[in-house]
Amino acid sequence: MINSTQVLYFTLSAYFDTGLFKYLHFIITMSLYICIVVTNVFLIVVICMHRSLHEPMYIFLCSLFMNELYGSTGLFPFLLIQILSDVHTVSASVCYLQIYCLHSFACVEFLNLAVMSYDRYVAICYPLQYNTCMTSNKIATLIALIWLYPMLINVIMTSLRSSLQLCGNIINKVYCDNFPIVRLACSDTTIINIYGLIATFCTICVPLTFIFFTYLKIFRICFSGSKQTRQKAVSTCTPHLASIMNFSLGVSFEIVQSRFNMSRLPNMLRIFLSLYFLTCQPLFNPLMYGLNLSKICVTCKSLITNVQHSY
């Protein structure tokens, strides 16, 4: 039996020998990471530099883009190292750090999307009270909640996980994840399982339920309101709804794959499904919001035009 103090590293068994194709995989992964960093940093800078975008909706968007950078940085450098490596091992401390980053990224994403749905609900259903309701203090409080709550619950999860006695060190994934490590435990996992269910309910089910009810009220107002109200709702809510559905779908893939035996699926498909919510969402959000929100789109075009004229 191997206890937790003896497990100094984990082996990631989902990797397989691709020969010289590993350099192609490295280039594709690196290009994707560069695109994610450039697009998200660009939109953060645009929002911060232009006073016309210093509104609650764009401040929450800025928080969302920062989270995409946070989650991507927790995954991509690790993947790039592993792709080129011949031995796919990772130290226990680095593995636990990656789990903390990726889980807190997912929690922040759901909470941020829930707060953005509340912002759209107030803006569309109570436009006259919007400025008095969404004060700078309230915005700061919501941003703090978005980031501090996931950090706290994941610190507790990390401490529970590190106290487990493990009977092995092989993880059948391309990155570190919580549930495969819990399944390696030879000690009682009742407490961490119960805590995991409560944390999942509070960080996924509660925000999604809140989003569902806010959009029920938004759609009710839209159908009974004027054409202008419907146009405003469509223009600001479409990218938000697309982002929610895309991320929820990706997380659902990962939860199903972690809990059930998916060995019948091809290895490449399992790797793609486990990476979908971590790789597609950080690129999907800046493209969706940058192209669909007219204010951001116009500001970006004017910024690019000014740069071209300066040369």
UniProtKB/TrEMBL annotation:
Its main location: membrane. GO terms for cellular component: plasma membrane. Belongs to the G-protein coupled receptor 1 family. It is found in: Cell membrane. This is Olfactory receptor. Keywords: Cell membrane, Disulfide bond, G-protein coupled receptor, Glycoprotein, Membrane, Olfaction, Receptor, Sensory transduction, Transducer, Transmembrane, Transmembrane helix. The keyword Ribonucleoprotein does not apply. It is a multi-pass membrane protein.
